[in-house]
Amino acid sequence: MKNQKQKEDITIKQAQEMVDDWIKTTGVSYFSELSQLAQLTEEVGEVARVISRTYGEQSFKKFDEAKKLADELADVLFTVICLANSTGIDLTKALHKNLAKKTKRDKKRHTNNVKLKMANDQKDSER
Ligand SMILES: [Mg+2]
Prior knowledge:
Layout: H1 2-8, H2 12-27, H3 33-55, H4 69-86, H5 91-105, H6 114-126
Helix pairs in contact: 2-4, 3-4
Magnesium ion (MG) binds near residues 43, 46, 72 and 75.
């Protein structure tokens, strides 16, 4: 049970270590940064495909039906972690720094966004 819990709750640092272990034991080595970028683009496209067919007007093709958003997002996360690991980026530090930047930059931007308020009011009225 404890092992199951450990698998569910992991830090970003642990995720980076898990991916690094997987690459070294199963993936052999990291692809070049350019190959990883191509892979990331491909995986983001797969997320777009699932979202388009789930929430947009497109219907699923037979071979797309098994594709799940969670798995495609995990593919994107895996690829981002690979890119961070192979370029020496600590994603925990990077995320803290990035959120601090966004908080400072966008402190009032979203709360003052009339279009966002109208969209939320519309959603509330539909409930
Ligand atoms: Mg994928």
